[in-house]
Write a structure and sequence with these properties.
CATH topology: Rossmann fold
Strand content: 15-25%
Number of domains: 1
Strand order of the largest sheet: 2-1-3-6-7
Shape: globular
Largest sheet: 5 strands, parallel
Order of helices and strands: EHHHEHEEEHHEEHH
CATH architecture: 3-Layer(aba) Sandwich
Number of strands: 7
Structural class: alpha/beta
Length: about 220
C-alpha cells in the first residue's frame, strides 16, 4: 500500500527547511528528503508504515489538483495498492498549463508585483468567485467519483478555507474546517506555535495535525 498525495503548499511542505543546510529554500534539491519526511503526508505515511508519493505543488489550485490527479490515474500501475490523499486548497486560486513551463499558478504571479495582474485582480475576484466555487466542487466530485468507481480509498481535508461541502463527503477530515485555522486554534489552546512565519505549518504543526488525522482515519477504517 502506498499513499498518493495531491495538494498545494500545505501538502508540498513549504517552509519546512532543513536547519543543517545553509541558505535553504523549500524547493532546493538537498532539502527534498527533509521536506517530504516532515510534511503531514510523510508523517502520516510513516505513522501508517507506508510509503508516499507527493504530487503537490506550491500555490496549486483545485483545478490543477484535479488535472494532476487525472494524469496520475491514467498512468498508474493498476496492480499497485494505493490510497489517494488530498489537501484541497482555497477555491479562489487558478492555474493554467503552459507547454514549456508546466503548471502556472496565479499565486506566484500575484505575489511578484506584476501591476497588470494586480490592477485587474479585484475585478477578477468580483466576477469569478461563483465560477471558482463551481470549479472546486467539480474537482472534488470528479476525484471522489473516480476513486469510488475504482475502489480506491481516499483521505481528504481542506488545507485552506474552502467552499462549503455540497456533497457531505464522509471522508473529508473535520468537514468544512481547514488545516490552517485548526492549527491556529490548537496553538492558542495549547499555548504552542504550529505555524511558520509565512503561515504554513511548521514541523510541530504537521505532526500535531497528523495526530488528529490518524485517529479519524482509524475510526473511519479507511486504511
Amino acid at each position: 500500500m502506498k499513499l498518493i498525495g495531491f495538494g498545494c503548499s500545505f501538502t508540498y511542505g513549504s517552509e519546512l527547511l532543513n536547519p543543517e543546510l545553509e541558505q535553504t529554500w523549500d524547493q532546493q534539491i538537498e532539502n527534498i528528503k527533509y521536506r517530504e519526511n516532515k510534511v503531514w503526508l510523510g508523517v502520516l505515511a510513516k505513522r501508517l508504515g507506508l510509503e508516499a508519493d507527493n504530487y503537490s505543488q506550491p500555490a496549486c489550485s483545485n483545478y490543477a489538483i484535479q488535472e494532476i490527479f487525472a494524469e496520475w490515474f491514467n498512468s498508474r500501475d493498476v496492480q499497485e495498492s494505493v490510497t489517494v490523499v488530498i489537501g484541497w486548497t482555497n477555491h479562489m486560486r487558478n492555474s493554467w498549463w503552459h507547454e514549456d513551463h508546466g503548471w502556472i499558478h496565479d499565486g506566484f504571479i500575484r505575489n511578484q508585483g506584476q501591476e497588470l495582474f494586480k490592477n485587474s485582480f479585484k475585478d477578477w475576484v468580483n466576477y469569478s468567485k461563483k465560477r471558482n466555487e463551481i470549479i472546486t466542487n467539480n474537482a472534488k466530485l470528479f476525484v471522489n467519483s473516480v476513486c469510488k468507481s475504482h475502489n480506491i480509498p481516499i483521505i481528504q481535508l481542506n488545507a485552506l478555507s474552502n467552499v462549503t461541502n455540497p456533497y457531505q463527503l464522509s471522508n473529508c477530515h473535520q468537514g468544512d474546517q481547514n488545516m490552517h485555522d485548526v492549527l491556529l486554534l490548537e496553538g492558542k489552546r495549547l499555548n504552542k506555535n504550529f505555524l511558520a512565519d509565512g503561515g504554513h505549518p511548521n514541523e510541530s504543526g504537521h505532526e500535531h495535525y497528523v495526530e488528529m488525522l490518524y485517529s479519524w482515519i482509524k475510526a473511519k477504517n479507511i486504511v
